[in-house]
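Input chain follows. Return structure tokens only.
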Amino acid sequence: MRANWSNWYRLVSYCRSSLWIVPFFAILCEQVLIRITDRLNPMITWRFYDMDVNSAMAVLNAIVTLTLSLIVFTFGSMLVAIQVAGGQLTPRIIATTLLPNNVVRFSVGLFTFTMVYGIGTIGRIGQGLNHLAMAVTVVLGLLCIVSFLYLIDYAARLLRPVSIMTHVGESGLKVIESVYTRKRAKSLPPENRLQLPDRPHQLVYHRGSSGIVLAVNFDQLVAAAQRADCIIELVPHVGDFIAVDEPLFQVYGGEIADEDDLRATIALGSERTMEQDPMFAFRILVDIAIRALSPAINDPTTAVLGIDQLHRLLRKVGRRHTQDEHIKDASGVVRVVWRTPNWEDFVRLAIAEIRLCGAGNPQIARRLRAMIENLIQTLPERRHEALRLELDLLDRSIDRLYALPEDAAMARVADTQGLGASGTGTVENART
């Protein structure tokens, strides 16, 4: 069981992001329901709209044709929409936001269930008209029509940039809370890293296929460290790409007899996920913002919407203890060390690229200033140095990019809307 954790994790992740899983199980459920209706029909004395066999066949064929058309239209439209959204925003949203969407998957599951149920009812009509199955098929057909209309409205709302970025922001907040479990308080010690020996007693290298570190089974790592009475350090960050024969673990104070036992605690994949990667939400939002700022798209308002979500995430990170890197066993002994991004890493990622791509646009310069000044007002003093550095870099970029002093003065006004009401970057607005 222990050695199969990484494979199990990848299987679960695949199922969560696959469109075909729910329709497949819908077919299995249909096989159960249609047999139940076969058993119950002899107990039913009423007739469904006094239909004869020919009328029933016409209705059933119409419902099967309808559901098949809905399946084809839904999959075709979603594939086109996914490609368009991925091209205009960022391809990273396909696996993280669009494919795992349960509304789309369960709608297609309902269409598939109804189509197969209708085909099964047609196949049994030679044994006599099953009025209960007819009633169920008609009700399912009506539900499919309602579901399809809802799906069209839902997809139109889902594919808007603001909806995508809000979803990414909400997911990012959850990951930050799960990775940085403690709020930063005055009683906590300074954020110093654990001092380990200069040289490890054992190096465990990666074997198998290269990939990105998606997740780590820390419970299993702690148990392995306890058995060997040692400290295990995870060398790559979650989200890092690791190639074959690169160091994966460093072991201090002892040796691990079964290195494969350690390797099995790491789940690798081809694309980053958000589950244990607090920076991935930042990466997605920054990618959307800088793509919107490219000359080919030139949509600074979308970039401002991205900064809105980055603002939320930075405030959340700034209020957490950002170096919960030491995992202890039940007796309080440090057993596992894993490196997490610090405050400065988040600030640079959230601001630097957007500033380099968009400081020449007053809408972006004003929104960035509003965010930075707002965070300086609302976060503890220890978070201010990195923010002040970015504010200084923003001012120097404005001096370099704006030839007219009036334009430079306008770009230096803090504005949470970009080009809206001036002076809106206040503490009160930050807390809403």
